[in-house]
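Recap from last week: sequence in, structure out.
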Amino acid sequence: MIIVGTPGDPETPLLKDTVDGSVDHKGRPAKRSTTGRWRSAYFIISVEVAERFAYYGIQANLINYLTGRLGMSMAGAAENVNTWTGAGGLLPLVGAFVADSYLGRYRTIVFASLFYILGLGLLTLSAMLPSDCQNSDQITSCSPQLQIILFFFSLYLVAVGQGGHKPCTQAFGADQFDGRNSEELKAKSSFFNWWYFGMNFGIVITYTVLGYIQENLSWGLGFGIPCIVMTAALLIFLLGTRTYRYSVKNDEKKSPFVRIGRVFIAAAKNWRTMPSSVDKGTPHHQVSQQFKRLNKALLTPDGFSQENGGQCTIDDVEEAKAVVKLFPIWATCLGYAIVLAQSSTFFTKQGVTMDRSIGWGIDIPAASLQAFIALSIVLIVPIYDRILVPTAITLTGKPSGITMLQRIGAGMFISAISMVVAALVEAKRLNTAQEYGLVDIPDAILPMSVWWLLPQYILFGVSQVFAMVGLQEFFYDQVPTELRSLGIALYLCIFGVGNFLSSLLISAIEKATDGDGHSWFSDNLNQAHLDYYYWVLAGVSAVGLSLYLYFADSYIYNKGSTL
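Predicted structure tokens:
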């Protein structure tokens, strides 16, 4: 059975052969028959697979590199990982601004890829420099200062590259489908599912291959391979140049960021101004009544509307409202983001202490366990897209089966369950250490299989199929067309802020519990209490989900939304 809108579907000839608002690589009106759709999306998805391979090639094992090669404490390393990941999540706001206001998505992707490749090259060089760390608490006491500077400079250069890459590639890929055409509209919804499928396929390869190389062969080779892959990705992206659809930028209008900022400033200036009684015939009454205080941006200090000399237009105000109404959803998803930050930090450190033998004298690298998150996504996305969605469409009559907000809420609920499971498993791990008298031996391998961690990894993957894909589609769909890169950036910075909050939470708990010598994040994990920390996160998830459901219930979708 062929599901409409999935890769490989036959493309139905359409009567109108041009796509409104799009041009080809030569600036001519884009032809529907020769540009866009899956033929272009394949190039862009391939680039995303390679980019995620490169990014997770660093992030997956970073905590082990910091605690091992650079000799940092576990809490300090976790804070550094979260800070770097957080920066990578916030920089897309800058990338979106550059793309939507100046360069466009295509050029921003090219320049960001060059920064990415440079950062990966320098990171490889820093890993090849000699290091004499012996698990010191202060990295400067055991690593050459040049190596430390070069390492962190290259690490944040990669974050800059990701900041330009992430908000643009997905938005540019979705731009290849015309939302005003019924067939392409269905394909666009399916695109987000297959995008996430392809992305996690690259992540699976990263965890299974690079994790082993970095821990058993060479850190330099483990960082060098992502550099080579990212270079190949840029070349693949350039090969698709002739097939892409490029959004037309309205040169007569100011930058969307400037327009929205101007609305907030004008509304603040006019907060005491009342509409003039002689101005009732203007289009001011046509503005939506949601966030009515922003309507004052249409007034001048004398109370007259924009038709009589105001700076902001009705369209400007509606754009600003479209962004503002996303904030409650954005804020209530931060608890979910904090939970997701744990898989690359404490989950990995737990795995190091457990029996990782898979037979024949081979131990699975602790970081490679994260592959099961991506693997569960790769397995579940086709089931969701080909079975669950058609079934839900039949039951609900909605184009995507369930609404975007329902999908996000389901993912948040599953992530809360994963924290409960993680807390119970960690309690068993600590009991095992105590039972076998290994509490005071930090390097001991406990007689407890690492596969006990598998359920929490799988639940993470299942939650992402619902929440992450739903958030991507929601923040792309619910912003004006010219702000699509900003929409994706807002989605990404949920996880950037979430990682910063995770770092702050770790720091606060470390200070609160370290005084009596029983830190929850002790370097000796057998004396730590990650189980308490996971229960705290389960509580944070429950509160966040409750607030999310309250705001999601009253959310009004934009007209023409795919839901």
